[in-house]
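User: Some background: our group keeps a shared notebook of sequences we're curious about, and every so often someone picks one and asks for a predicted structure to add to the entry. Today it's my turn. The entry only has the sequence so far, pasted here. Could you supply the structure so I can complete it?
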Amino acid sequence: MMTRKELLHVESDQQATNPALKISEQIAHERARWYLLNDRKMIAYYNKHWPGVTRGRLQKLSREAESFYRAAYRRPRVLEVIPRALNDWESMTDEEMLAYYRAEWSGISRGKLPSVSRAANAFYQAASRRPGVFDAIERARTDWTSMTDQQMIEHYNRHWPGVSRGKLQILSNESCTFYEVAYKRPEVLAAIIRVKKNWTSMTDEQMINYYRQHWPRVSRGALYRYSRESKAFYKAAQTRPNVLDAIPTARMLAKG
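Assistant: Of course. Here's the predicted structure to add to the notebook entry:
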């Protein structure tokens, strides 16, 4: 039977030959370490080792700092001591981001936020990756028909620079309604990039997926009249039985 000294020697050899085991044990040790500290001691440790370091920076500074932040995040009294950078959106919860939006830019729509200030633009970029925040931000209903062609072109260049006609139709409700009006204005339509699709290089499955993404439940006849792109797509689909079968007729849609 092995003695305690021999067992410890074997464990040290296993750690030396298995770095992953050593790292996982270090992480577990760090977690247990913070668990043993009360809030006051946690705050004192933070002020001694990382004074003034923000929440976002703590998570990237070191493994020790990251594990400290994870423990502090579950302790409100400790967390409130750690400063948050003005643009440290990643460390905020959805509720905190929405509260910040209402305090700083209440009533400002999604479309206008990026042009308000650098901070507002950074907030908008972070919010666009958080559905819970983005959906709660006011969305302006723009009256495109009251705009001149030049105003519409400027709006396109400011909000969707380089976005193609097909992409505009599926990007958002706002861009879709914009395109519907732009389609009836030759000067505006000419300013929007048009991407020509090489339908012959697509497989049947790719064409069907493209149809479902861009014109879901649009009938064959409507597809032919909808836009130049959809018309070209329909003509190509007519030569592909599998693709054509995936596009419903108006009668099929009426039957549900």
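Suggested note for the entry: The chain has four domains: 4-79, 89-134, 144-191, 199-255. Residues 7 and 13 are 10 Å apart (CA to CA).
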